Amino acid sequence: MTLGQVIRTAYRTALPQSIRIAVRRVGSIQRLMDGQPLFPVVAVDVPSSTAAAILRSRRFGITPERHALMASHTPLISLNMGQNCSHGCVYCVSHMDDRKKRSGYLEEIGWAEYGRQLLRLAGDAKVTYNFAGPGECAEHEHFPELVQLLLNAGHWIWIQTHGLSSKSIARALNAFPKELVSRKVNFHLSFHIAAYLDDKDDRRLRAYLDKHLATIASFGCITCIIVPMSPKVLAWPRFEESMDLIASICKERGARFIPSLVEFHGPYEGRHYPDDYTNEEQLRLSELMAKYGNPSRGTMAGDEAVIVGDSLMLRAMPCYAKALITEVNGDGSLRHCQSDPEDNFGHLRDAEGLTKDPKAHPCPFDRCLCVSVGYNMSLAPNGVSFKEYADEIKRVDLRIR
Question: Is the pLDDT of residue 216 over 90?
Answer without folding.
Answer: yes
